[in-house]
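Can anyone check this?
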Amino acid sequence: MSGRRRVELDADTVERDLARLVLTVVELLRQLMERQALRRVETGELTGEQEERIGLTLMLLEDRMGELRAKFGLRPEDLNIDLGPLGPLLPVEAAGRPDGERGP
């Protein structure tokens, strides 16, 4: 069939592309967890100890994400998949902020 298109895989980029996809999903989940934690803090649902533990966990996760992005040569904005008419997957300001810079 002449209309069939073959998928061309470059062995050098497959690992990076897979890492990009996985890190994008992890970043989306990290941001959702962060928003949920902030909501719970604002409503007073957490004890001080729970707030501290969640905050530390989220900071460690963000640091590890930075390490993994660096390992694969990815920038934070590389994890923001364009969904066409729906727009970007991640909020632009959160996806493009430099490592160590936290949003509101």
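Reply from J.R.: I decoded it. The first helix runs from residue 11 to 42.
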